[in-house]
Each structure stands twice: as structure tokens, then as C-alpha cells.
Automatic annotation (TrEMBL):
InterPro entries: ARIH1-like_UBL (IPR048962), E3_UB_ligase_RBR (IPR031127), IBR_dom (IPR002867), TRIAD_supradom (IPR044066)
Chain intervals with Acidic residues compositional bias: 15-39
Organism: Brassica napus (Rape)
Ranges where the RING-type domain occurs: 137-371
Region (Disordered) residue spans: 1-39, 543-581
Protein name: RBR-type E3 ubiquitin transferase
Amino acid sequence: MDSEDDLLNAHDMESGEEEDDFYSGETDDYNDSEGGEPDYGFVEEDVDDSVMIASHRSQVNYVVLKEEDIRRHQKDDIGQVSMVLSISEVEASILLLHYHWSVSKVHDEWFADEERVRKTVGILDGPDDSGEVIHFDLSTLIIFLSTYFSLEILSVACGHPFCSTCWTGRLHLNIYLLYTFPLILYTCVGYISTTINGGPGCLMLKCPEPSCPAAVGQDMFEKLASKEDKEKYYRYFIRSYVEDNRKMKWCPAPGCEHAIDFAAGTGSYDVSCLCSHSFCWNCTEEAHRPVDCETVAQWIRKNSAESENMNWILANSKPCPKCKRPIEKNHGCMHMTCTPPCKYEFCWLCLNAWTDHGERTGGFYACNKYEAGKQEGRYDEAEKRREMAKNSLERYTHYYERWASNQTSRQKAMVDLEKARSEKLEKLSDIHGTPESQLKCITEAWLQIIECRRVLKWTYAYGYYLPDHDKKQFFEYLQGEAESGLERLHKCVEKELEVFLVAEGPSDDFNHFRTKLTGLTSITKTYFENLVKALENGLADVDTQGASSKSTNTKSSKTNGGGKGKGSSKSGGSSKNLDGN
């Protein structure tokens, strides 16, 4: 393995090449968009370094939205539909809710057949007569009672009359009314309050008349709902803008209220929220580039599946010959006793009754019967099955332990980063007289470590499902180089930095340390860029090199066989290949 100085010198020779951000290969400035196109960057000025670096791992193709941003986008869409279609904002809201907040879909459907859309959505031009026969007696009674007891009559576009009590459920009727007109009790159930407390379905509420398709708009909720119900309604309303929108998703981090507006079809699916949580927009699992979502799903299922428990049982236990329950051997001798109520005593090796064993069969630590049966092949199938289970379990354990240990290291690195920001940078600045702005190499190193631990973690899931032997060798070489570079960087910023935290004053060694740390950070980044690009290309370099090798061998074979007979041509080509190998 190259020394750190050699690696740093090699890196200095390549310093003329422009370095891009994390694994992106992109240097374009996407903030200088023209023509009113959305700027797919963060809408926050003071963004944490970790968010900024993570967001530029690939082409910036998403926007992180806070609640006020979501409300503004929602209001803009409603205003646009209202203006283009010449309808009220209440009606525009109803349309957008029905068509999952797709402005283009609303426009297409409306201009294709306005009348059909109105009927489907429930935006009526005038009173609806479809329920008049069914509702006539009740309507007449409600109008009479409302007039007699001074209750307000309200209706949506269809014109079906219902008193304010029917809508809200806030009863102000005296005892005389309850006894005299019991029918009103059936109607006054608090229509709006009940539907709001029933969940987001209140956003698609229809007229209380059962046969009426008229939609209940936002204005009715604003006028009739209680303060508490209004808060619930508007929470459902704003959440629908994200949850019904194909281009948006909520950040899955616990307690986070931010949403991601994603420009589908461009760049990577990895996104970073303002809360510093990175995740895959496609599957909402934690960010896992360069491993695809299907592999991640397989790995997560495997980690939680019962199959690994069964493999462990097969590899480390044998069935009791009598009751067939799996028995784990927990002592050195071969004399086994099954648990109650079975209590069968048997030999661990040959599984026969212990009464047939003794000094003549090898005592407590051997079994001549098993050795004889093994030579005859009686235990081949069971042993083969157990050996396969053991190998499978050992292979899975190898990858899982490294996957988990990198996750643990990443979490610790995040804690160490915060500690460096809150304590160490200030202390180093005081001891060595260096402004904190010139100590960014330390935070950048920690950020690189956090990102590389994430990538390295998922490469072990990738390696577990990689079947091809030739590709596996190339993959393990790239993984090993990247991991070695990461360990050097981690050691430098974690261990070597401690010396300068207890120094008595400034020294040139600290300046050398900063230079070394910057170089190691850049080298580690390069290693991981190569690893990520190779995995995203499906390790295509192996196929390319293999095809090139075959082509070279073919040409060599033809050249060596020129001017000879058919037999000598084959012999010459074969001899050349053997010499080359």
C-alpha cells in the first residue's frame, strides 16, 4: 500500500485538474436559470455545510420547501387556475384537489369538456333539481323551523337548504323544540365538524343531500367550522398539496415538516433536506447512492427476514431424534439430553440413543458409530445441508457486520463533527492563532468521512448480491482502495488532531497537519468518486477489458497463423495464447 506522502505527492501532480463536488462530474451553475425556470436549489440562505455538500453530490434537481413555501406554491397554483379558467379561487381549489394539484391536467380536462368536468367535480352553475322530490318535505320543514326559530339557512351551489345547526352541529334549540320536532335531531349532526374529525376526506366533501354531487368549498369551512376544526382542515389542505402531488414528498425524518419538490428524470434520486437528513426520493429510504433501490429493498428485507434465523438453526443445531425439535449443543461432550417433556438422551454426532454408547464407542467426546457411518455415506446429505447453511450464514454475517460497523462509524462521525464545530475549532483557533475560517479543512474532512461511510456501507450490500467472479475482484479492489483511503483520513482527523488540542502554542506542525488533512480529504474523495462511478456503470470496465483482451488474443492468433495450413494455424494460435498466459 502506498504511503501517505506518496499519495499526497501523486495528488499534487494532478492538482491542475478541476475538482467537482461529491461524485457528480458536474460543474455547471444551475442557479443562473433564465426565462423564469425554477431554481432547483435550496430556498434557505444560511444552510448547514453538510446539507450544501450533500446537495451537490449530483446535479441539483430538487427544491426543499418549508411550510410557508408550500403555502405560497399552493396559492400560486390556485390563482393561476382561477385566472385562466375565469372561476373563483374556491372553485379552483376544488378542481385542483380533484386532479391531484396538477395545473396542466386541470387545464386539459376543462378545455376538453367543461360541462363534464363541472358535473364530475361538483362545481355547478346553479341549483340542482335532482334531489327535489326526495328532499322536499325535509327542506320545507327546515325552512319553516329556521324561520320560526331564527336559524340561518345555508347551501352550496346546488341550492339545497340546510340550517347552520345542521352544518355545524352547534345546537341552540330549547327543550320544546326537541320534544316537538324530533326529526330535526336526525339532520342536526354537525356535518362539517364530523367530516373534519373523520380525516382528510373532508377535502372532498359533498352537499348533505345524499343524491347531490355539489362540492362543499373552502368558503363554507371558513364560515362555519370552529377554530380547532379550521386548523385541522387547513392542515389536511396543505398536506394534500404534497401527498397528492407526484413531484413532491415529505422528508421522512422524524419531526421534520419540510417537503421536497423533485424534478423527475434528471440526476440522482439522493436528496438532502434542510434538517440534514439525506434520503432517496424514489424509495424514501436513507440515501444509498450508488446502490439501486431494488438492491436496498432486498438487503433490508434480508436483514429483517426469518430466513437468516433458519440458516442459523440449520448451521448450529440438530433435530432431536425423538421429538424433532432443534437442539443447540452448549457443552463439549457428545451426550445430549433434550429439554422436557421429551428428555430423550442421544449422541450429538450419530443421533442414536445414548444407551447404545459408552467407552467402546469412544466415550463422551467421540463416536465410532458416527465415523463408521460417515465412511459409508450415511450422513452426507445432512452434513452437506448443514455445511451449506453454515457457509451461507458466514457469508451474510461477513457483509452485514461491515455494513453495520460503517453505519455506526458514520453516526459517531456525525457526533464528532458537531463536537468539532461547537468546541474544537474555537479551541484550536485560540491555541494556534488561526481564524476559524481557515480551519474549514477539519469540518470538510468530517463531512467527507460521513459521506464516505454512507457510500461504503451500501457497497457491502452491493457486494453481497454481486455474482460475477471477475467483476467481484474488480469491485473488491476498488472498495479496498477507497476503504484504505477513508481509514487514513479518519485516523488523521480523529487521532492526530488531538495533539494540537493540547499544544501550548502555535507551531509549524499544525500548518503541516492542515495541508496533510486537506490532501487526504481530496484523495479520499477521488477514491470514492472512482468507486461510485464504477458501480453506477455496472462495473462495465471489467466487460470492456475482457472484450479488449479477447479481441487482442483473436488478432494475435490470426497473425501467428498467417501463411500456414489450417492445422498449423490452430496450433500456432494456441501456442501463442499459452505463452501469453
